Amino acid sequence: MGKQNHLARNYSKYGISSNFKYLIVSKSPEIVSHFSQYLILSINEFEYWLKTRDLNTTFEDVLKDYWKIYDSPFTSKQLSQMQRDLETGWRFTNE
Fold first, then answer.
1. pLDDT means per 10 residues in the chain (95 residues)?
2. How many CA atoms does the CB half-sphere of 43 hold within 13 Å?
3. Element (H or E) spanning 20, and its range?
4. pLDDT at 81
5. Is 24 strand, coil or helix?
6. What's this model's pTM, rounded to 2 decimal places?
7. How far is CA 84 from CA 73, 76, 81, 87, in A?
8. How far apart are CA 90 and CA 2, in angstroms?
9. Which residues in 1-95 belong to E strands, given as ranges?
10. What 3-state DSSP class applies to 38?
């Protein structure tokens, strides 16, 4: 939090607004990006964030909209078939 605190105290020296958005862009933001209080994005996620033109876009928004993490890749028919298959007692095994 040192850098953010420094900017919060000295924002006018850098020509930025007092209500700046502090975010971190990293080549490899995993896994810290999921648990940090900071907005930590990959380069591609950052480009998406910029295109939203919404400073309030959150990491959760990026997961939902950029990565489509809540979209199911399966149809309801496929999900039903998987459920039936699991009910037969079929199990994954190591090869």
1. 89 92 91 89 94 91 88 83 80 63
2. 2
3. none
4. 85
5. strand
6. 0.67
7. 18, 12, 5, 5
8. 53
9. 23-25, 39-41
10. coil
pLDDT the model gives residue 93: 66
Q: Six-digit token pair at 87? A: 């009910």
Question: Amino acid letter at 76?
Answer: S
Give φ, ψ of 43 to 5 degrees.
-60, -45
What's the rounded Cα separation, in Å, for the pair 68 and 45? Answer: 12
- Cβ atoms of 40 and 26 closer than 8 Å: yes
**How many CB atoms within 10 Å of residue 39?**
21
Closest by Cα among 66, 70, 60 to 44: 66
Q: Are 23 and 38 in contact (CB under 8 A)?
A: yes
